[in-house]
Structure prediction request, 115 residues.
Amino acid sequence: MNSIHPDVQAALDAARDLRHRIADMRERIDSIRARRPSPSGAIIPEVDAMGRLTDLYLAPGTAARLTSAELVAEIMAAIRESTADAGRQYQVVVNTLPEPSEAESAASTTASSQA
Prediction:
């Protein structure tokens, strides 16, 4: 019967835990959406974690009420605010990664001592 060396098992466990942590972080990043209204509140864009525009709401009559330049300024201001908010949400996700598991710590300690 073949048995796996404890150091190899620790490395395998660490790799599995790391894959789970990365998948969790990716899922949290993919769920980020920011919706910050324009200065007038009449326009609300939706932006994802990468700052991509995913949706845009214009209150009824907004396009008729504003000049082209005003409409552009409102849309751009709302997109800038939403992008900044999405960036803040992204940083929260990245900065709140869980600590490495005991297996990961043991594997890195073993790897360091063998170097």
